[in-house]
Input
Amino acid sequence: MASEWREMQLGEFVRLQRGHDLTAQERAEGKYPVMGSAGQNGTHNKSKASGPGVVVGRSGASVGRVHYVPVDYWPQKHVRLR
Output
């Protein structure tokens, strides 16, 4: 089984990136999940990331929490995405 695995750098198969700002005033109800450090916290009428994806909390009490998103979504500024 060990021969089936190869060693590689994390950046070879995943991209870590800060999420995108979205204030309450800018948010418009829609079909795309808005993902924060603690998971989905609403919806928006536009997406910024193509699903499926994984978001990881990068600040506050939810730092390190991981959430899978099967659809296009909006990752907020305090998350990192795949």
